[in-house]
Amino acid sequence: MGGVNTTRRTPGRPRSTEVDEAIAQACRELLVEGGYPAMTIESVAERAGVTRPTIYRRWPSKSHMVWDVIFTTPADAVVIGDTDDLRGDVELWVSATMAFFGRPEVARAFPALLTEQPLEETQQARLRDPVREQVAARLRRAVREGELHQSVDPGLVFDMVVGLAVYRGSVPQGGDPKPAARVISDQVLLGMILRP
Amino acid sequence: MGGVNTTRRTPGRPRSTEVDEAIAQACRELLVEGGYPAMTIESVAERAGVTRPTIYRRWPSKSHMVWDVIFTTPADAVVIGDTDDLRGDVELWVSATMAFFGRPEVARAFPALLTEQPLEETQQARLRDPVREQVAARLRRAVREGELHQSVDPGLVFDMVVGLAVYRGSVPQGGDPKPAARVISDQVLLGMILRP
């Protein structure tokens, strides 16, 4: 695994793509194997077959590198539907969010990154957009169409689902069966109070 | 701040109480000042005015020490009411949970602890009990009394509120005003779907 032959590269293909992928893969492997605190720039460089300066030219610190590596995918992978089926749309988002924060490398890295305060603004923005905005737009549409309460707080709903996903990704569930995305969506949408 | 005079101690009072408190205070201070990754057993010992062996006699590792320090209080502080007002009872628990995970030393330490897998069983148990069981008991009572759906999943509700509290404790909220415990309780209890 890992290792990039920098002398033999495909003509026309930018070298950085290959190196970036080798670094990303090394990062993911080392996170899963030993966790975030034990991982160093040095260990990533060695596993990826690159030099430390190669990494430092891209990122100023370990946390910047890991942010980039784990948040490369979700902008594509985590989405909310925009169909006429509100429950289905929300369920899709919940399911993708649980899957993302349940990935071994994300579960090992994300909570650790949260403790490295203060998060820089670019990292905060990456954390929030565009999924946060998509979810808010879908919920506001449902309010306009009379499906949801006027009082819905999209930011609260977003943080509740992401918080649950982060927490369940990190804390073993013991005897509880892992609830499906539909159960979680229904809890968020319907609440617990009996209908009158 | 910190520092324990181990030569002058109150007669009849066990020395360990004083030392424990000095270590706990040193831990909290260093977590707030520099975060979990930067904190070492050495720095805690120095700040507390004790030797490293004094700390290692109590805990086998930094994470064990920090777990003990940050979870000493919540068993008393985080509770759920057991009155006849379900919304008030839940609001009390939500409010205490948000306050606990919003404490600076907890926000800096808790997410980092989550990445130190596998959590040992005693730590998992400490994380879950007794509050998790109290919440489940209150919700089951409400189901019996016809206030809540039969389908309520107390573990899901617990993880959702704790997950939200952990996440909001760590991630700056940007422009969003911090929602009050009542808004969060209502989201959990009532959901978002318009009543028929």
How would you characterize this protein structure?
The structure is a homodimer of 196-residue chains. Chain A is an all-alpha fold and 196 residues long. The first copy, chain A, has 11 helices and no strands. Chain A has helices at 15-34, 41-48, 52-58, 62-70, 74-77, 86-102, 104-114, 121-128, 131-144, 154-170, 181-190. In chain A, helix 1 crosses helix 2, helix 4 (62-70) packs across helix 7 and helix 6 packs parallel to helix 10. The model of chain A is unreliable at 1-10 (pLDDT under 50). At the A-B interface, helix 7, helix 8, helix 10 and helix 11 of A face helix 7, helix 8, helix 10 and helix 11 of B.
How much β-strand is present in the residues of chain A? under 5%
| Run of helices and strands of chain A | HHHHHHHHHHH
Total beta strand runs of chain A: 0
Oligomer: homodimer
Could you list the spans of chain A in which at least 5 consecutive residues all have pLDDT below 50? 1-10
Using a beta-carbon cutoff below 8 angstroms, give the protein chain pair with the largest interface and the number of residues from each chain: A-B, 55 and 55 residues
Mind describing the biggest β-sheet of chain A?
none
User: Termini distance of chain A?
Assistant: 59 Å
Instruction: Give me the number of helical elements of chain A.
Output: 11
Averaged pLDDT of chain A, please? 82
> Which radius of gyration of chain A do the C-alpha atoms yield?
20 Å
Secondary structure category of chain A: mainly alpha
Helix content estimate of chain A: 55-70%
> Globular, elongated, flat, extended or rod-shaped: what is the shape of chain A?
elongated
